[in-house]
Amino acid sequence: MVVSAPDKTPIEIKGQSSAKPTRRNWLKLVAVCLALQVCALLFTECVLYVAGLGEEEIFAFDKDLGTRHMKNKRITWRSEGFGVCYFDGDGLQDPGLTVAKPANTFRVAVLGDSLVEGLQVPADKKFTRILNESVKLANGKNIQVVNFGTSGYSTAQEYTLMKKQVFNYAPDMVLVCYNSRDIFENWSPPDATLTNIRPVAICLPGQPLVVSNAAILEWMKSPRARFLQSISWLRQNSRIWGLISAMETELSFNDKTYQTIMELLTRPKKAVKRLWAEYSQPEKWEVSKWFVSSGSSGPSFNIQFFEGKDPNAQVNKSFPTGAKKKKKKSSEQIAQKNAEVRPAPEPKKPVTEGERNYIKLMSRTLGALVSEMDSLCRQHKTKFVVVAMPARLGLDPIPGTETTMYGLDYPGEVEVVKTTCLERGVPFYDMLKPAQSELTQNEKKAMFYSLHLAPAGHQYIAEKLTPFLKQECDNVGR
User: Fold this and answer.
1) 3-class SS at 466?
2) What is the pLDDT at residue 13?
């Protein structure tokens, strides 16, 4: 006897028939969502490209230099000032530049940091471009000034760049521009800021100069470095990432929490030791520092909460205080009160013996670097010249900026560089001293945006360098 299976109900038949289409619908929905997101990202990238936004990511990583310019990339700088340039296949920004030197041309390679790089001004306003037009050589040759400046570069990096790239361009002269703190940047470990990824240089008494990239190689093993290297294509091409990177740069300079996180990702052992030493102190955990009772004899909560802001700002009317009944104080009274509240500047601490010894060591190291660069230039039949830049730290320091390091201010640094060059017979030109004596305070301010040169600053440098550079170039031909 054969028993037939019971007929399926309409509901069961409908459920089976709709199972596969439902899964297909979900896959279609996911595919459509992904496609829309990709289109949205591409559209955003196009808008940012047209607007010239997110184009401030300039650094690729290099095991010898630490950082170098990206290649074949347009840069639009907006963080300070405004400028547009293009990095060619070698990371240089001079249009039409060829590795082979044109005939009847005297080529000058200019090395330095962001003051030479000049991303903050239009390309034709940079002093390196102006010098191409202003310097007229007696022998009738055309002068070609090539900008090798890179943000954050130390003298040790400039020495390494000279060996690695500069001589490929067969310069007739190498001009190194010294900026504030360069002497100390030759011995500084990497930290949260990308511009501080550098080789270190040291010259101990009785020993030869040592330039080591060990700190760079160690940094490249850190989680942060591996992540940044893994997204190198995005860093090179994405303007969305460029905006993220600009925010990251701002945080790395100004946000202590972010700096600590980056330190943990870059140098975890050192960061943990520092945090442990800092937070293991009993005074860090005093409750009185967290809460201030209304009856305490110490500073009021209002002063603590609004520290750094205007203490006379208008109080919210909904807050039940008697502040609105008080008469407005005159500007003289407010200024007097602010002067009373503001702590007096701390007196400068005397330079210790250890600081003096450290400055001597850094001066010896700088001297060894200058000697090595001069020797390399002689081997390539190239003239070597050093110029001290008119840095803001020596002309018009930003209020609140520490003007000395280990007891040495920028004019003191320039004297060290001058002595170093004179002892070695290297031509030296001090642009700081004439700027200090010739310019009014308003003219000094007009030279800078914030930390970097404005067009007026580039124009001043070009005017001062023109006769000096012409004389040095003409002397080469004699």
Assistant:
1) helix
2) 53
Mean of pLDDT values over 376-383: 97
What is the extent of the structural domain holding 202?
59-211+361-476
Burial class (CB in 10 A: 0-12, 13-18, 19+), 5: exposed
What DSSP string runs through 193-221? SGGG---EEE--TTS--EEE-HHHHHHTT
DSSP 168: G
- Give the whole-angstrom CA distance, residue 88 versus residue 164: 17
- Start-end of H helices in 52-112: none
Q: Give the contacts of 398 (CB within 8 A, at least 6 positions apart).
A: 392, 450, 451
| Number of alpha helices (DSSP H) and beta strands (DSSP E) in the chain | 19, 13
Cβ atoms within 10 A of the Cβ of 155, count?
Answer: 25
The residue count for the chain: 478
Give the pLDDT confidence score for residue 17 in this predicted structure: 53
The one-character DSSP state at 174 is E
Locus of tokens 């030493």? 277
Residue 102 CB neighbours (<10 A): 11
Cβ atoms of 123 and 75 within 8 Å: the answer is no
Q: Which residues contact 136 (CB under 8 A, 6 or more apart)?
A: 143, 470
Residue 201: closest CA among 368, 336, 410: 368
CATH number of the domain at 394, please: 3.40.50.1110
- Total structural domains in the chain? 1
How buried is 132 (Cβ within 10 angstroms: 0-12 exposed, 13-18 middle, 19+ buried)?
Answer: middle
* Per-residue pLDDT tens digits for 56-90: 999 999 999 999 999 999 999 998 999 999 999 99
Question: How many Å apart are CA 466 and CA 454, to the nearest integer?
Answer: 19
Q: Sort strands 105-111 and 83-87 into parallel, antiparallel or unpaired.
A: unpaired
In which element (H, E) is residue 176 found? strand 173-178
Q: Which two tokens stand for residue 235?
A: 């860093």
Q: What is the DSSP string of 272-316?
A: HHHHHHHHTSGGGG-GGGT---TT-SS--HHHHHTTTS-TTSPPP
Check: CB of residue 436 under 8 Å from CB of residue 393.
no
Does any domain span residue 147?
yes
Contact 235, 56 (CB under 8 A): no
Tell me the torsion sign for CA atoms 121, 127, 132, 136: positive
Asked whether residue 67 is domain-assigned, the answer is yes
Q: What percent of the chain has pLDDT over 70?
A: 81
